[in-house]
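Subgroup meeting minutes
Present: P.N., E.W., G.H.
Scribe: E.W.

1. P.N. recapped why we're keeping a running log of single-chain structure predictions: easier to compare across weeks, and new members can see raw inputs and outputs side by side.
2. G.H. added today's entry (313 aa).
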Amino acid sequence: MSPAAPRVAAIGLGNMGLAMATRLAAQGVPVTGWNRGPEPLAAAAGVGCATAPTPRAAVAGATHVVVSVADGPAFAAVAEGPEGFLEGLEPGAVVMAASTVAPAAVRDVAEAVAGRRASLVDTGLLGNPSHAASGQLRVYLGGADDAVVRALPVAGLIGKEVRHVGPLGAGMRLKLVLNLVMGLEMQALAEATALAGALGVDPAEALDVISGSGFASPVMAFKARRIATGRYDEPDFRLALMAKDLGLAASEAAAAGVDAPMTAAAAAAHARAVALGLGALDCAAIAAAVADPSPAAEPAHARRAHRSVEERT
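Output recorded in log:
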């Protein structure tokens, strides 16, 4: 007997969550979305998704639950409590934990999911919202073989590459490794730009040369354009999320006995940038923090980004 067609609950409709919901709805998958703020719910309804007032209501009848929220506390909050998705989870459903959180947080929720006769697959995603909306993500799944097989119909619609990378927690660990590389690239690009300016080299020219060199990754070249123009609003990936992920990577490295001084330094630098009020901006705004590490009045586009993030989450 072939598996039933997916019915998806999308819990969290931030940039990535909404893009994945949009992609699934465009492929004919019934999607019911939930989000704490109202604006993304209206956007989801506009692309053909149903909406629900609570996570519990959103998962009623769902075969797959895609959770995309900011951090571990948010992940626990949408899972637990009388209106959390655990209370409404259908037996046999697959929870795809697409939030980047500590592997221990995945384990804790997975145990509660198993108590509902359902399964959890941690789902590391590589790509941005444009990739999600076009089905071009790279998807790294961690979990038991049977749970991963059940997750594939949805993973295959959002990703151009889908890999089962190991047992529960493996997808999240790999995502932290990947975000570590990106965070270090952003830190290096920010410091190189600041040094160029201090040495009398035009930062825009230095960025152009770096972007066209063999040193640059596609992401680095893309982010260099943001730094050159100083436009950090409408973020692809918020600096606060990068700070969180670098902190998680530093914690995992320490727990594993891995000496990772660059990771620790980048995590500290990003934490300072968040403290300066840059957390709601694109992660490329680490360049602004490196260029001027003193507290300053928050730029207008930063205020707009903060308001937008508050509405979406």
